Amino acid sequence: VINAEKSEFNEDQATCCQISIRRRELGLEEDKEWLILCSTQFLTGYYWALFDGHGGPSAAVIASNYLHYCIKQKLEEVAGAITEARPPMHVSGRCVCDSDPQFVEEKHIRVEDMVVGALENAFQECDEVIGQEMEATGQTGGCTALAALYLQGKLYVANAGDSRAILVLKDTIVPMSCEFTPETERQRLQHLAFLFPKLLDGEFTRFEFPRRLKGDDVGQKVLYRDYFMEGWGYKLVEKADLKYPLVHGHGKQARLLGTLAVSRGLGDHQLKVIDTNIEVKPFLSCIPKVNIFDFALHDIKENDVLIMATDGLWDILCNKEVAHMARSFLAENKTDPHRFSELAKCLVRRARGKKMGHQWMLDDSREASYDDISVFVVPLHNRDEDC
Amino acid sequence: VINAEKSEFNEDQATCCQISIRRRELGLEEDKEWLILCSTQFLTGYYWALFDGHGGPSAAVIASNYLHYCIKQKLEEVAGAITEARPPMHVSGRCVCDSDPQFVEEKHIRVEDMVVGALENAFQECDEVIGQEMEATGQTGGCTALAALYLQGKLYVANAGDSRAILVLKDTIVPMSCEFTPETERQRLQHLAFLFPKLLDGEFTRFEFPRRLKGDDVGQKVLYRDYFMEGWGYKLVEKADLKYPLVHGHGKQARLLGTLAVSRGLGDHQLKVIDTNIEVKPFLSCIPKVNIFDFALHDIKENDVLIMATDGLWDILCNKEVAHMARSFLAENKTDPHRFSELAKCLVRRARGKKMGHQWMLDDSREASYDDISVFVVPLHNRDEDC
C-alpha cells in the first residue's frame, strides 16, 4: 500500500490484519465440557481494507482502526453457524420446531450468507460508532470503505463507495466490486427525495436533466428523468425546475446535492450543504455490496492477485491496463520476494505521473489526477501456507 | 393465445395490435408546409401484451383495452425524438444552449431510451386510469402486465409482475423479463416498511425469518434478514417479532402482507389486507422493467420465436423445456402456416394436463396447476414483410 503523497493531509487510509474469530460462550446452562471446547475453537480470517476520506482524514482514520473490530465481533456472533454445514435456525443449535433444518434449507441459507450478513451489519455498526466518536470530538468528514476478507476458502469483498477491487487471474479479470456514486445510485436518491420532499428544503429539484436549466427553458419541453425511469422523457419546464439538481454533473464531476462525489460510505453525520440546513446523511448509505469468490471453484495460478485501490488509481488506469501491468510485472520479477509490494508501488507511480514544474503529468502527457492513490496487491496462490 | 379454460371467470387477458405513431403538431408558430409534412409522418409499432388478473378480471380487462393506447400516446409525445439519430434536448428541436447536443451525447441518451421512458410512463398512466375507472364503477382487483413492442428494428419487453417472455433462437434462449414477486422484491418492500412503519399498522413485522415464529422462540436468537441485508444474521426474538411477516412463504406460496403473490402490476387501488385497514397499494409498483433486443445485432433464423406466457405456463415448464418443445414442434411442422399458433396451443395443453376425475394431471403424473394459462408465440423472421 502506497500513498502518492500529493495532498498535504493524506485522506486515504489502509488496514491489513488477521482476524481471529472465537466462538462465543452460549450462557450458563450449557454443560461445562462443551463450554471449554468452544472457547478454544478459533477461525482465522485475513483482512485488507482501504478508506478514502473526504472533508478531512478523521472518518478514514477511525474506520481503519475500527471496522475490522466490528467485523470480528459480528463474525463471532455467528461463529456457531459458520462452522456448520448449514446455519441452524437458532444460534444455540436447539430445535424449537422439528422441521427447522428444512425451513433453513428451503430458503437456501448457506454459511456464506452469514458472513455477508456479518459484513453488512459490521459496516452499519462502524458507521454508528464513527458518528458518536466524531460528534464527541467535534470532528467532521466521511470516507469510502472497501474491505476484503479471506475466510474458509472464500474471498468476500465488501464495498461502500468508489474504490474498486479486481482479481487479475491468468486468463481473466474478475471485478469484485462496483462503484456507488450519485450517478450509479440516481434512482435510489431521487426516490428518497420523492418520498421525503422536505429533505430538499425547496432548494433542489429531484429531476435529472442533461444540463442545468436556464430561464429560457421555462415553458419548453426538455429531456428529463424521474426516480422511476431508466429511460428518458420530455418534461414541460416550470420555474421550480431551475433549482439546482439533486444529482448533477457527469462522470467524476457528478455530485450529490452539489456536495459529495460518492453516495455510500461511512461518516458525514454532520455534513450539510454549504449555506443551508440541508443534511446530506439521509441520502447516504453505509451498507456495502458484498461479492464472493470461491477458491474451490478456480485453479489459482502463481501470479494471480487481488488488486484493491482507491479511485485515484482507477481514474487514470482501467481494469485492462492494470491487469496488463500486473501480469507483465509479475512475470518479469518471478524471483523477487517483494514483487507484490513492488507492483503496488509501480501502479501508484504510473497513476501519479511526474512533476513537471507545478503540474503532475502522465507518461502520455495527459494531466495526472491530484487525488490520493492507494493500492493493495494481494497474492492468491499458496493461501493456506503463506497467509 | 389460448386460455386453458380452467377457471370459470378467466382472469388472463391478452391484446395484440399495431400501434400507429403520428408525429404531433408542434404549435401554431411552425410554418405551414412543415406542419403538413409532420401530420402525414407515421411510425408503426407491433404490440403484444398479457395481463394476469387477480381479485376478478376487471383490471386485466381495462388494461388489455387501454395500455396500448397509453403507449401510443407516450410514443407520440416523443415521436420527434425517436426519428432523429440522437434525441434533441428540446422536443421542438430548438437550441436554447449551443452545446445542447453535446450534453445529450455526454449522457449517452439514445433513441431507445426515449422508448423505454415512454413505456415506463405509459404503465404509470394506465395504472392511474385503472384506479379512476374502477373507483367510478365500484370494481376491484389488479393484474400483472407483460407487454412487447416491436419498433424500428428493436424489440422492447416491459414487465410488471410474474409473467415471462423469452426469445427461443436457434442456439440460445434469451430471457427478456424477470419476475417481480414478494420474494424478488423483498428488500424494496422491507425498506418501505422501515421508512413508513405506519403502513403496517402494528399488525405485521418487516423482518424476514425462515419460518413463522412461535411463543417458544421469544428470548432466543434466530435467523433473520432486514431490508439492508442480502446475507442473514441472528436476531434476539421479541414479542413483536411474532407478528405476521410483511413477506411470508416461499416460492409460489410467497405473499406480500399475506395477500398478494406479486409485487408489481396495475390496479389494486382499493385492496386492503382482510379484516384490517392496511392498504396493499403503497407496496405495489406499477413501473415495468424494460429489456431491449436489437435485431440488427443478431442473425434471426426462420424458426426463432418470442414466447410470452403467464405464470400458469412457467409454473409447470422451465425455459429449457419450452425452448425444446418450440424447436422440435416448429422443425416438424415447417410447412404449416398456422404452426406458431399451434405451438401456443400445444404449450398450453402440456401445462394444463389432462382431467382425471376431479383432478388435472400432467403427463408425468404430477398434479397440474389450476391457474389460467395464456401463451403468445411470435415469429421473429421476415419481420418487415410479414408483421
Automatic annotation (TrEMBL), chains A, B:
Taxonomic superkingdom: Eukaryota
Ranges in coiled-coil conformation: none
Residue ranges annotated for the PPM-type phosphatase domain, each copy included: 25-380
InterPro entries, per database record: PP2C (IPR015655), PPM-type-like_dom_sf (IPR036457), PPM-type_phosphatase-like_dom (IPR001932)
GO MF annotation list: [pyruvate dehydrogenase (acetyl-transferring)]-phosphatase activity
GO terms for cellular component: mitochondrion
Organism: Asarcornis scutulata
Name of this protein: PPM1M phosphatase
Pfam families: PP2C
